[in-house]
Automatic annotation (TrEMBL):
This is Alcohol dehydrogenase-like isoform X4. It comes from Nicotiana sylvestris (Wood tobacco). Keywords: Metal-binding, NAD, Oxidoreductase, Zinc. Signal peptide: none annotated. It holds the Pfam family ADH_zinc_N. It comes from the Eukaryota.
Amino acid sequence: MNSSGHRVISCKAAVVWKSGEELKLEEIEVDPPNSTEVRIKMIYASLCGTDILCCNGFPKPLFPRIPGHEGVGVIESVGEKVKNLKEGDIVIPHFLGECGECPNCKSKKSNLCHKYPLNFSGLLLDGTSRMSIKGQRIYHHVSCSTLSEYLVLDQNYVIKVDPRIPIEHVAFLCCAFTTGFGATFKDVNIEKGSTVAVLGLGGVGLGVVEGAKQKEAAKIIGIDIHEMKSEKAKKFGVTDFINIKISEKSISELVKEATGGLGVDYFFECTNVPDLMINEAIQSTRMEIKLDELLTHEVSLNDINKAFEYLKEPNCVKVGQPGHIASRIHAGFGAAPKGYNVDSLPYCKHQCVSDSTASTRDM
């Protein structure tokens, strides 16, 4: 550790004092790193929509706080127990840690570490903050707070990067773009020649587009309400652009028109309103098995005996009881639109019952 690593550093940071207020540039103090921590001098930071939510009190109204969770910097000092990192290393401070030992870290399907998780407490994992202003504690944003000239993080939340990569590009590797890009490789792993639709062409959506292009998708349909996004999206690899704001048709209708009535193999929902869009996304995909025709009768829980009578009739296939989405009814089919697990489709769970017996749900 160098000499500055033993002392508190004064620096500038963007601080939000109350929910919804503008950020103020303040002089703050940043503590030296503990034994397993590093202190990073930020070089470049980028903004994400989550930072706006942070300033409005998401996920907890903890103030004063310093937003920012995307950025790149250089290690200024290290704790005595830090391994594989040294002063001068170019690094990304990240909000997802990695111990390398827990089941999730060893899994090829997840990197949500059990020991170093996503932290919304406003503090570091030891329950303290490394930043203050005139003796008053300042809360971190998901451990990072990249809108400060200096920050402190545990070594397990730090990613070393190749210094040959342009600094301003490295900052984009922290959150939005890689969320979308990784979805095409890790979560879905789309096949060459597939058809893909992407709803929402912001940072996450363009990451999906780039990933789909590298996976050699045959058709990539970009969907947004802003015509201005068309040109940039096509530079990333969008083959067809749909502006849903200028059409009275539903998203699923427009997507099927663009695919000759078939629908797409994969639909990526990249907006901030997934609850409103998920059914449109499902209806836009190619249906491998039609389940709608299985449901021939619906009755309320009060008429449960009628349901059993229906079940005895030759024209009855399945009996369902409509109600809340959360239920004990599970589809008896493993097939669903490509890219979806049937358990993640409320519509299928809502309409289908397993085996050949009528099922009901609690109201």
